[in-house]
From TrEMBL:
InterPro entries per the UniProt record, alphabetical: Low_temperature_requirement_A
Keywords (A to Z) from UniProt: Membrane, Transmembrane, Transmembrane helix
Pfam families in alphabetical order: LtrA
DNA damage as UniProt keyword: no
Protein name as it appears in the record: Low temperature requirement protein LtrA
Transmembrane region(s): 33-51, 63-85, 92-115, 121-140, 152-170, 176-197, 217-237, 243-266, 287-304, 316-337, 369-386
Length: 396
């Protein structure tokens, strides 16, 4: 129910004032969850194209394009998420602009195939720019009633606008090396905008709401990985007589996905959302976690193709495409959320086991060692709860 202080105007619009960061029971809205589902479509398409590129022998090129496309997906999602925790009004204009942004996600998703196949990023950039232009409109609207955060909202709007012009210019670069260098420079420009804006007028963020949003997106990405892995294994049944190895891979993939979920949700993530530095580290660090979770499904598909003899990739490298994303995911969660809330045993076993999953190719059963070490991590976390770990490290 809307309080008298924020009654809708004659256009049925609610003044976009900063939300209370201490608001009780702040949870993700149905619109935010709907928003996440559209983004996972883009993640799924990116992972599928990574799978196809690597299977045909283009490991380096496929991985580079995946990371480039994933930046656009992740950065647009992250910007909306942090804006929403500060200024979500949930009136009709806010909903319309959010749905337009979702349309930009679908345009971006439609351009992922041409980006991988022909180095044509035009559609990806157009979809990305549409999402970012919507954010400019949202920030400008927020600036009208932002109070002390007004300067920050205007810096966000201006900074995003300037960089989008530069993205258009980036598409005109023909030299591959120059294109990569400018791309990295524009990525740095994008991630610098929040640093500059928040240093000059902090916008309020709700720790529990933010971490719930990250948790919801993690669940959805892991669910997409499980679906893609299952489809890869089920689809191979018709083409392989070695059903046992495929069933084993499917079971082990399920166990690993469940372990990833368990590991991610063990620590109290909201403790990482405090000052500006910690919040930026948590938010930016999730690029690695989300990208690894998305790449995991591609790795399972690549491993299936390798078992069927349909892959141009060396079998050892095929196994690494499963174990490396898992190791990166676990190490990312450990650095961002587990390490500050755990004692010595957890902070030794988790990173060591994460690295040991890279030994997977030494035995002939794919993902067996990965699954074994992931189970060791989960058992360790069950024995040492976050509360006990916090007490053992002086209350952190």
């Amino acid at each position: 129910m809307i309080s008298p202080a924020v009654q809708p105007s004659r256009f049925r619009l609610v003044p976009m004032r900063p939300r209370d960061p201490g608001e009780d029971s702040r949870a993700a809205s149905s619109l935010e969850l709907f928003f996440d589902l559209v983004f996972v479509i883009a993640v799924s398409i990116a992972a599928t194209n990574l799978h196809e590129a690597v299977t045909t022998g283009h490991l380096g090129d496929g991985l580079a394009k995946y990371l480039m496309v994933f930046f656009a997906i992740w950065w647009a999602w992250m910007n909306f998420t942090w804006f929403a925790t500060s200024f979500d009004t949930d009136d009709w204009l806010y909903r319309v602009l959010t749905i337009v942004q979702m349309g930009g996600v679908l345009i971006l998703a439609a351009g992922i195939g041409p980006a991988f196949a022909d180095d044509n990023f035009l559609i990806v950039i157009l979809g990305y720019i549409l999402m970012r232009v919507v954010m400019i409109a949202q920030w400008l609207r927020a600036s009208r009633h932002a109070g002390e955060a007004r300067r920050a909202t205007l810096i966000y709007a201006c900074g995003i606008g300037i960089v989008q012009v530069l993205w258009v210019a980036w598409m005109s670069i023909d030299a591959p090396m120059a294109s990569v260098v400018v791309f990295l420079a524009l990525v740095l420009a994008e991630v610098a905008i929040p640093v500059i804006a928040e240093a000059r007028g902090t916008t309020p963020w709700h720790p529990e709401h933010i971490t719930e949003r990250y948790g919801c997106f993690t669940i959805i990405v892991l669910g997409e990985s499980m679906l893609a892995s299952a489809n890869a294994v089920f689809g191979a049944f018709e083409d392989s007589e070695d059903i046992v190895s495929l069933v084993s891979l499917g079971v082990l993939s399920l166990l690993v996905t469940a372990a990833m979920w368990s590991i991610y949700f063990w620590p109290p993530h909201h403790r990482a959302i405090g000052g500006l530095g910690g919040s930026l580290t948590y938010g930016y660090g999730h690029y690695v976690i989300f990208a690894a979770a998305g790449a995991f499904s591609a790795g399972v598909g690549i491993e299936v193709d390798s078992q069927l003899g349909d892959s141009a990739l060396d079998p050892v490298l095929a196994t690494f495409t499963v174990s490396v994303p898992i190791a990166v995911f676990v190490l990312g969660v450990w650095v961002l959320a587990i390490r500050p809330n755990a004692g010595g045993a957890v902070n030794t076993i988790v990173p060591v086991c994460a690295v040991l999953v890279l030994l997977d190719p030494i035995i002939p059963v794919p993902t067996f060692l990965t699954t074994f070490f992931m189970i060791i991590i989960v058992i360790t976390l069950i024995v040492a709860s976050p509360k006990e770990a916090a007490l053992s490290t002086g209350g952190r």
